[in-house]
Amino acid sequence: MKFKQVLLIVAISATSAVGSVALYNKFTRNPVAGVGTAENGLPANYAGYFDGKVYSPADPVDLTKAAATAAPAVVHIKTKIPAKKISNDLPRRRSNLDDFFDNFFNDYGPNIIPEQRASGSGVIISEDGYIVTNNHVITNEANGNVADEITVTMSDRKTFKAKVIGRDPNSDIAVLKIDGSKLPFLVYGNSDQIKLGQWVLAIGYPLTLDATVTAGIVSATGRTIDINKRNTKKGETPIESFIQTDAAVNQGNSGGALVNSDGTLIGINSAILAPTGTYAGYSFAIPVNIIKKIVGDIIQFGDVQRGYLGVSYIPTDGLNDEQIKSLGIPTNIEGVYVSEVPTDGGAYAAGLKKGDVITKVNNTPVASGMQMSAQIAGFRPGDKVPVTYMRNGKELTTQITLTKKATPVVTNISARLGGDLATLDKTKASRYGIGGGVIVNKINPTGVLANAKIQPGFVITGIITSEGEMEISSLDDLNEALQNRFGTVRVTGVYPGYGEAYTVPLNLGQ
């Protein structure tokens, strides 16, 4: 009997304890942030998860080894670009004062670009003295004049005279050579393996400073900022597929090294987006996979060996919804619309057709002509490149053998553009309220004009290229503006009777 009483007392005590704990939790315990009860009685919480454990911060990335490895191979480049006289056929009235000031100021009048001195950075890529830098470091962008005196200073203050081996304005790459042996140099990495968020170092000679190392992370890859257009050769396509970082880069850093945490070269610092002219958080480097192919071509062949797919194209990112619909392109596809496939190119032999949309080149997605060109830039004529494209809703892949670019001799601009064109007579031009132009009388349904959706009756009044806008008043003007030009240009003009002026992209092929 006593035993049963003991059990009863224990049971009552346990029940009281449970009840007390429940009441304590309900009324006195501090609530957990983010926890509540839904209308259906189920517990509700925010999606964030906190396990209550305390963690120490991760060890920072050690970049000292990378800096010590790479810095000795980065050099300071100083250039002297000679004065250049600009020919000008315009008559100019002169006075005795003009002659006096010309003599006093060494004849640096309005038709003379004076001698220029500039500086930048470069990277030694071989122990016998080959150096890669930016083309704009050794070239006057205003007139294309190349430096006639280049001095290279190493981190140990040794100086060398350098000569230009070759340069490629399309990619903004130049190769120099100094006489030396057993020089420190950087090893090429693989820029295709770069990951967003990885740590990088930018090394160069910014402003008036000595060798400077800054750190940052990779913010983006495959960036296009349209900066190389202004120096691209006529009829060529600029090559841009920049690595974007937040490593501080300023004037003078151009041509310097972008290295990974191992000190391996992954890019050449080339540009900044800077509203004020100085670093504002965005710097851009040319990927090393583009560099090593172009540099190899220049050293081995003396110029760049470029392969071509053999298509005329329209990037889908440059089309509006109406144009995409009229071309029959699915709205959920990004790529390059094939507008024409010449029969003598590699694309034709591989089976590509007008209306296909190229989505990948070399297994890399492409959404613009420049991205496509950047992928092809790593190959030479004769190389086979995998190309993925969409046709009738199906994804297909083929191998295209790249060909050399054939430079056509344009004798008939009407035939090249695919239309019946004529110089607009002065009477009609006056009636339309324009100074002149070229009128499109008929359209070849498979030609360049038809691909641009230009209709008969359109009057071409101008051509816009990366070099600026050219006024078109006659067929001769149009022929001169487009002769041996490729890629995409913009045509300006009017439809008589409609007050609005039009600007239309015109793809002239590769």
Description:
It is a single chain. 20% of the residues lie in helices and 31% in strands. By secondary structure, it is α+β, with helices and mostly antiparallel strands. It has 4 domains: 73-85 and 99-177, Thrombin, subunit H; 191-301, Trypsin-like serine proteases (Thrombin, subunit H, Beta Barrel), CATH 2.40.10; 312-401, Pdz3 Domain, CATH 2.30.42.10; 413-507, Pdz3 Domain, CATH 2.30.42.10. The strands form 6 sheets. The protein has a 6-stranded antiparallel β-barrel. The protein has a 6-stranded antiparallel barrel with strand order 11-12-13-16-15-14. Strands 17, 18, 19, 20, 21 and 22 form a 6-stranded antiparallel β-sheet that branches. A hairpin with a 7-residue loop joins strand 11 and strand 12 (212-223). The longest helix is centred in the first third of the chain and has 26 residues, at 2-27. The model is unreliable at 1-40, 42-50, 86-109 and 406-411 (pLDDT under 50).
Write the layout of secondary structure elements.
Elements: H1 2-27, E1 35-37, E2 43-45, H2 64-70, E3 74-81, E4 84-85, H3 96-104, E5 112-113, E6 116-124, E7 130-133, H4 135-138, E8 149-153, E9 159-168, E10 173-177, E11 199-204, E12 212-223, E13 242-245, E14 257-259, E15 265-272, E16 283-287, H5 288-301, E17 312-315, H6 321-327, E18 336-340, H7 346-350, E19 357-361, E20 364-365, H8 369-376, E21 384-391, E22 394-401, H9 413-417, E23 419-423, H10 426-432, E24 438-443, H11 448-451, E25 459-465, E26 468-471, H12 475-482, E27 488-494, E28 501-507
Antiparallel strand pairs: 1-2, 3-6, 3-8, 4-5, 6-7, 7-10, 8-9, 9-10, 11-12, 11-14, 12-13, 13-16, 14-15, 15-16, 17-18, 18-19, 19-20, 19-21, 21-22, 23-24, 24-25, 25-26, 25-27, 27-28
